[in-house]
Amino acid sequence: MAQFQNQELEYMIDDEYYDMTDFEHNNNNNNNNRLQKSCAEDSMDSDFEDDFDQNKSKTDTSAEEARNGKDIQGIPWERLNFTRDKYRETRLKQYKNYENIPHSREHLEKVCKKVDKSQTLYDFQFNTRLVKPTVVHFQLRNLLWATSKHDLYLMQNYSVMHWSSLLKRGKEVINVAMPVLPTLKYPGSFSRSLSRVQVSTMAVRDDLIVAGGFHGELICKYLNKPGVSFATKIADDENAITNSVDISYSSSGSTRVMTANNDALIRVFDAKSFTCTNSFKFPWSVNDTSVSPDGKLLAVLGDSTECLLADAHSGKEIGKMKGHLDYSFASAWHPNGQVVATGNQDTTCRLWDVRNLCKSLMVFKGRMGAIRGIRFSGDGRFMAMAEPADFVHVFDTESGYGSGQEIDVFGEIGGISFSPDSEALFVGISDRTYGSVLEFNRRHRNQYLESMF
């Protein structure tokens, strides 16, 4: 990963940062009606009962408002000196993708799969500005995780926030500006107090939240227990940022946490005792790591054009994935465990069959920049990939990835996440004025009705 001097917490996106202050306007002129929504207590399956009320922001957008012509992000194009289409055209021309290794894109155009992106796989449902992800390092965008179609966790400034899409409310879960005092101390766990942690990456699975810090910190919290269970500093190097964290089940069924750091190490922690059970050394800074669904394989990506496949128990290299032209920062496994996707600063995502790594199965290209986020839906039907800004691409795997949807927004993308049941897709926008969380719901086609026409 590139060296990055962090001067302030918010909005440090370097060359890729896109400030939308051109869109600032007087909210007093916004007369949108407040969306009223009531839910019976027994219909709520949120992880938390929120302990405070928040009125819906006047700048939030519902599906009904969008159908009536309102921009899904609430940008008042009718009051600006340019249209949305004109601004998009200018944006595509002016955007400069960040590269560690300069390369030509001519070859990529020839090898990338042609995809029909005219489909609507997920319909816009709601956009809120009450919560929004904060990007600490411009190359790291894993800051958004859904645990159900109604429950979302994200990093906002110094707070891990929970957003309930049912209640339209947010709640602070962890405050890392204040001293973080771990409640559990096991022999050999090296737990310690931390403060003012700048969270660079996070992951949530079941009832466990794991956050990695800009200076090598690691914080773990069980949602069903008070306080923070574990906190420590796992690396002390000057540039020891925690680039990636992953929560997985080992082949024996135990829960483990894996961290990837700039010191070229992947560390393995037992999620019960929080002891470091193993560490794997690699020849370059590790930017991302993810474990296969069966817990046996490990995708390792970093400051290299090559990506590695390793044994998740020993860290021993099994094979190399060659084809990318720059450094990689994102990976995801298809639920079948046979396909892994890698995202790279060369603006492509590649699919690999782990049984034969000699050549990538398919190559997909973004519109503007690097692929910094990849997710598969829980049922394996869809794959989503996010660029640093403006575009999220959703692919239908059952069509052989030949059809899909392009979600077109404005602003830096802080993260994407499918709900575990694949019914919702969340997109986090990091921006001073239009930072928000967008929710999309899966479109279901009524096959019975379609058969009648």
From TrEMBL:
Keyword Signal annotated: no
Family matches, as InterPro entries: Quinoprotein_ADH-like_sf (IPR011047), WD40/YVTN_repeat-like_dom_sf (IPR015943), WD40_repeat_CS (IPR019775), WD40_rpt (IPR001680)
SMART domains referenced in this protein's UniProt entry, alphabetically: WD40
Protein name: DUF2415 domain-containing protein
Pfam entry (one): WD40
Domain of life (superkingdom): Eukaryota
Record's keyword annotation contains Cytoplasm: no
Comp. bias regions, Acidic residues: 42-52
WD repeat start and end residues: 321-356
Region ranges (Disordered): 42-68
Composition-biased stretches (Basic and acidic residues): 53-68
Keyword vocabulary terms for this entry: Repeat, WD repeat
